[in-house]
Amino acid sequence: MYPARITDEFPAPSYRGNQKQALADIRAAFESGKDVVLVRAPTGSGKSLLARAIAGCARTAGEAAPEQVIDAYYTTPQVSQLDDVAEDALLEDLCVIRGKNNYDCILPGETDTPVNQAPCVRERKFDCQVKHRCPYFSDRAIASNRRIAAMTLAYFMQTAGSDVFGKRDVVVIDEAHGLGEWAEMYATIDLSPQSIPMWNDIDVPDIDGLDEAVAFTERVEHLAERRVKELRNKAELTGEEVAERDSLNTLRQDLGWFREDYTDTESATTWVVDQADGENAPVTIKPMNPERYLKHTVWDRGNRFALLSATILNKEAFCANVGLDPENVALVEVGHTFPVENRPLYDVAQGKMTYEHRDDTLPDIARTIVRIMAQHPDEKGLIHCHSYAIQEQLKDLLDDFGVGARVRTHDKEGRDGALSAWKRSDNPDVFLSVKMEEALDLEGDLCRWQVLCKAPYPNTRDSRVARRLEDDQWGWYYRTALRTVIQACGRVVRAPDDYGATYLADSSLLDLFERADHDMPDWFRAQVDRLSQPDLPRFAPDQALSGLSSGTKRRHDRSRSRSGDGNHPLSDVWD
């Protein structure tokens, strides 16, 4: 790596904000001998541009000895972030490669078939005559030979050990704050009817402890291997059988990895097992702090690493979570350039939103949202609901209060479509979202205000969370929630001249700020220090709807006047 050329590799014609100083600090960190540099850069810092400059410091073929690795990877856990990179003209030399399911086959009669179900994977001994023109294999070949290959973190981890995407000189991970949690998610093993087609042929015991889980996985792997052999003996497979074969092969690899890691006395990974309903119920095997998994899938993939995020809150805790030595890691802090008065926090707390208090608190939050809607009659708003249960209950309350004409929701399957429709709409609609605290760019009039309905603490019913709290890791618990809050606050203010208000409706959020104060970045603490109670209009649903056209209101009134059975041929339009 050649850090000295980092400024020359910066892709924009000029700097904005603190980018020039950030590049100098990153260069100094690498030149001090650190192999890993954490870059804590808030919203609007241009992290992708910084990432490109760092990747450009990688050795090239002309600078390397034959035994030395060259070039760079850019990776991010967020698909939307990769999409933004692919569309940015300043980043056109980042060569994007995606998974097979994102490409369609080009053979006659197969143009609607994704490559991961094409004849080359369905038919034994199939010889594709146009493989050199296949969109997936073509993109893969190009990316493998380009100076900077860009991909999602999932694809990056899946290609560990491949001949195509081997070790490179520099690896840049954008939005890296959740790297440990992403690794835990990818390494989690789900044993259920959804992952095991022959589930009904398995006598699932009541698993009490990891030793019993190991014995059970040996039986599952044996059955999976037998089923894969049956599929391999077929001359041609259906698309569903291809998916089954690939899923079972992945499962076999994961089970083998689990048993190998569990029996390794030197492994730092702790495994936990869940089986909520006992005998014959699904089983989930989860890793905690999967250092060995990250070593294979990430740390063995490069010589030098840059990890960028707004919310790497504690260097030592982050390093411990992902298996890094803090002595070999530098933290570069990039200052915030957005005026603090443009990103105000407002206290509209109505009580606790814990499960036992939710039914009492949520109606008051709904009434407060109506008042906030009246405060912003002509501006779009975003409600962070935290869960689909809260979303559904809140939607019903807002309907009952008479403001449903301005409210949009989404389900798990239609998230992207509903979000795109809301962003395209000219109406000041309010979007009730679930798990959209990250990777959402709502610059300008796309959204001017948002509400956080619930403090986003990790679910204590998750065995990994429970285990950490049993080990007294409360600092991790509060940092995780704070990280999500900071990410959420960055959705509606995306540029120095942008502005947007964030309303805090759960009193537990105020408690969180006190408990996690020592882990707050200075720029976010400045927002918290200015926290105030807004002077909202009275509860007036008609005022909350005043920014809508009369036609929109009438359509909603008609839909509410029907019997509500959902069987009318225009119900999907009216609703």
CA radius of gyration: 26 Å
Number of strands: 16
Mean pLDDT: 90
The spatial strand order of the largest sheet comes to: 3-4-2-5-9-1-10
Strand content: 5-15%
**Poorly predicted runs of 5 or more residues:** 557-575
Q: Kindly report how far apart the N and C termini lie.
A: 57 Å
Q: Number of DSSP helices? A: 21
| Structural class by helix and strand composition | alpha/beta
Approximate shape: globular
Helicity, as a percent range: 25-40%
Describe this structure in words.
There is one protein chain. The chain is α/β, with parallel strands linked by helices and 575 residues long. Helix content is 39%, strand content 13%. The protein has helices at residues 19-31, 47-55, 79-87, 119-122, 135-145, 153-158, 179-187, 210-232, 239-263, 291-297, 315-322, 358-375, 388-400, 415-424, 463-470, 474-489, 507-515, 522-529, 541-544, 550-561, 571-574; strands at residues 36-40, 72-76, 94-96, 148-152, 168-173, 189-191, 270-274, 283-288, 302-309, 329-333, 345-347, 381-384, 407-408, 430-433, 449-452, 501-504. The strands form three sheets. The chain has a seven-stranded parallel sheet with strand order 3-4-2-5-9-1-10, with helices on both faces. A six-stranded parallel sheet has the order 11-16-15-12-14-13, with helices on both faces. A three-stranded antiparallel sheet has the order 6-8-7, with helices on both faces. Strand 7 and strand 8 form a beta hairpin. 40% of the residues are buried. Residues 388-511 form the ATP-dependent helicase C-terminal domain. Keywords: ATP-binding, DNA-binding, Helicase, Hydrolase, Nucleotide-binding. This is ATP-dependent DNA helicase. InterPro entries: ATP-dep_Helicase_C (IPR006555), DinG/Rad3-like (IPR045028), P-loop_NTPase (IPR027417), RAD3-like_helicase_DEAD (IPR010614). It comes from Haloarcula terrestris.
